[in-house]
Write a structure and sequence with these properties.
Blueprint: H1 6-13, H2 23-32, E1 41-48, E2 60-64, E3 75-78, H3 83-88, E4 93-95, H4 97-106, E5 113-116, H5 121-124, H6 128-132, H7 149-158, E6 160-164, E7 170-177, H8 182-198, E8 209-216, E9 222-224
Helix pairs in contact: 2-8
GO molecular function, one term: tRNA binding
Protein name: Large ribosomal subunit protein uL1
Pfam families: Ribosomal_L1
């Protein structure tokens, strides 16, 4: 087991592992227990009472966080028909077949997110496995496959984040940066909590959200009181 730094030991000591904190308390504590020299991202994890083996219990989507993300993402726009729109929306890279071939032949991944128009998806499918292993394959459910590519790019720039269940029934996302004021973090938390609640599958009976926790990069997990 790696040795804990003095900073991390001190941060861990501030968190009561047996306590469920209100979200206001949790946000303040997350900031206090941030141990990095850089501006840490505040992550959120939902443990849900779902069985992702069933298609109707797989939760996936995207949301534009009202308080932003504090992150700048390099956007690759793949299109044949909306090149001007994507360029005007200031995607970092815009192209079609030639950029798909660049990824395939050169293992080029100088981007963080891919948006695409529907007509290019057949070609993009040829490298679907390559993109999929890196979580970069665009999907209509997250708004990254669309004819309105300019709007998709603008949403990403405003603070769009994706969420999906993993094989354990957990959903991971972010609510901002440790430098954000409490109100923006709270707005982001409420926004993502709301979409998770609305995504509750009809097949789920009883408690839906079992646990919620937040943490900064490398910081301790803080359990949040769940209001189902």
């Amino acid at each position: 087991m790696p040795k804990l730094s003095k900073k991390l030991k001190a941060a861990n000591a501030k968190v009561d592992r047996t306590k469920l904190y209100s979200i206001d308390e949790a946000i303040k504590l997350a900031k206090e227990t941030s141990v990095t020299k850089f501006d840490s991202t505040i992550d959120i994890a939902f443990n849900l009472n779902v069985d992702p083996r069933h298609a109707d219990q797989q939760i996936r989507g995207a949301i534009v966080l009202p308080g932003g993300t504090g992150k700048t993402q390099k956007i690759l726009a793949l299109t044949k028909t909306k090149v001007k729109e994507a360029t005007d929306a200031k995607a970092d890279y815009v192209g079609g077949t030639e950029l798909i071939q660049k990824i395939q032949k050169e293992n080029w991944f100088d981007f963080d997110i891919v948006v695409a128009t529907p007509e290019i998806m057949a070609e993009l499918g040829k490298i679907g496995k390559l993109l999929g292993t890196k979580g970069l394959m665009p999907n209509p459910k997250t708004g990254t496959v669309t004819v309105d590519i300019a709007n998709a790019i603008n949403d990403i720039k405003k603070g769009k984040v994706e969420y999906r269940t993993d094989k354990e029934g957990n959903v991971h996302s972010i609510i901002g940066k440790a430098s954000f004021d409490d109100q923006n973090l709270l707005k982001n938390y409420k926004a993502i909590l709301d979409v998770i609640k609305k995504a509750k599958p009809a097949a789920v009976k009883g408690t839906y959200i079992k646990n919620i926790s937040i943490s900064t990069t490398m910081g301790p997990g803080i359990k949040v009181l769940v209001e189902n």
